[in-house]
Design a protein that fits this description.
mainly beta; 9 strands; two-stranded antiparallel ribbon; globular; single chain; 101 residues; 1 helix; 7-stranded antiparallel β-sheet; Umud Fragment, subunit A
C-alpha cells in the first residue's frame, strides 16, 4: 500500500460511528496509554487475519509504511474502545488537502 500520510500532515478526526475497512483511525497505543497513533483498518470484527480470529469488538490495524510501522502485527488486535476517532480530512499542508471516507 502506498503511503497516504506524510510527516507534517495535519488531520481532522471525528468520534467514530461505523468503522469500515480501509478507514484511517486515531487510536490509543495499547501498550502506551496516552500515546496516539494513526492507522488504517485492515480487518473487521469477526474476520480472520492469518491465525488470528478477531473478536466482536476487535479491529486489525496497519500503518501505510508497513516496513517501519508499529501496528497490529506488533501489538495484536485493537479493541473498539481504543479507537478515538476516524480521520475525515487532511487540512495541512494546503497543497495536500484531502478528504477520507
Amino acid at each position: 500500500m502506498e503511503p497516504g500520510l506524510q510527516v507534517g500532515d495535519y488531520l481532522l478526526g471525528v468520534r467514530p460511528g461505523r468503522i469500515g475497512r480501509g478507514a484511517l483511525v486515531v487510536l490509543e497505543h495499547p501498550l502506551r496509554p496516552g500515546f496516539e497513533l494513526v492507522k488504517r483498518v485492515k480487518a473487521l470484527p469477526g474476520e480472520r487475519v492469518g491465525p488470528v480470529m478477531l473478536g466482536p469488538e476487535e479491529y486489525w490495524v496497519v500503518g501505510d509504511r508497513q516496513d517501519a510501522s508499529t501496528d497490529s502485527r506488533a501489538f495484536g488486535p485493537v479493541n473498539r474502545s481504543a479507537i478515538l476517532g476516524v480521520v475525515r480530512l487532511r487540512y495541512w499542508p494546503p497543497s495536500r488537502f484531502a478528504t477520507f471516507g
